[in-house]
Amino acid sequence: MIEVRNVTKSFGGTRAVSDCSLNITGLKIAGLIGPNGSGKTTLFNLITGLIRPDRGEILFDGERIDGRMPHRLAELGLLRTFQLSRVFPRLTVMDNMLLGPQGQAGERLWSLALNYPRVRREERRNREKARELLEMLGIRHLRDHFAGNLSYGQQKLLELGRAVMAEPKMILLDEPTAGINPRLIHTMIDMILKMRDRGQVFFIIEHNMDVVVELCERIFVLDHGEKIAAGSPREIQSDPRVIEAYLG
Fold this sequence. Notes:
By secondary structure, this protein is an alpha/beta fold. It has a single domain (2-247), classed as P-loop containing nucleotide triphosphate hydrolases (Rossmann fold, 3-Layer(aba) Sandwich). The protein is 40% helix and 23% strand. The protein is built from 10 helices and 10 strands. The chain has helices spanning 40-47, 70-76, 93-98, 109-114, 116-137, 152-165, 182-197, 209-215, 233-237, 240-247, and strands spanning 2-11, 14-23, 29-33, 55-60, 63-64, 78-80, 170-174, 201-205, 218-223, 226-231. The strands form 2 sheets. A 6-stranded mixed beta sheet has the order 6-7-8-3-9-10, sandwiched between helices. A 4-stranded antiparallel beta sheet has the order 2-1-4-5, covered by helices on one side. Helix 5 (116-137) packs across helix 6 and helix 6 (152-165) packs parallel to helix 7 (182-197). The relative contact order is 0.18.
C-alpha cells in the first residue's frame, strides 16, 4: 500500500534519509527498525507529510502523496501515532476517541440544522464503537477520566484506539511500546493483532525486537539513512549487516 522510491532528505549537512526505497504493498504488518539516529522517524515524517523529501517519490494506494499535508493524507486513509503520546489531556478518554472518525455529519452546521436525527444516529454508533475499542484496550473503566490523568502507557493505548476509530486504510505506529510496562505491551500487541484480523494494515517502528518478531511479516532495516536489509524476521535476525549495525 506504501511505496517509497529513492527518497532522500537532508537537514543542513546531515543526510537523514539517503536514496531509500521500500515497498510494503500486500503486507498486513510491516516493521521498520534500526539504531538510534538511523532515519526511521524521519522516513515516517516524510510518508505522513510532516516534511517534504528533497528527492524521490512516495506513493500510497497507487497515488503519489509526497508533499501533501497530513490532514489530506488522513482523508485518504493514512494515519499515524508518535513516539511521544499526543492525546488531548483536558478532554475525557471517550471524547478523545470520538474525535477520531473522519467526516462526521455533526461537524457540518447544515447537517445539525437539517438532518439532526442522522447526526444522533452517527453519534450513537461512534460511542458504541468507542466503548468496544476501549474494552479491547482494557481502559473502558477510564472513559470519563481526563486523558491527561492516564498513565503514559494508557495514553499510548488511547492514541491507538483513536486512530482505529477513523477506520483508516493504514496506521503508522512510531514505537508503540516504548516506555510502557510489560502488561500494557501485551495489551498493545493483542490489540494490533485483533485489528489485523479485522483487516487493518500497520507499518511499525519498534526497538523491542521481541515485539517486532511477534508482529511483523516483513522487516526493513535502516542505518545512517540507508536501507541495508529487508526480509522476514528470521532473515533479519541472521543478517550480518543488521548485526553489524546494532552491535558495531
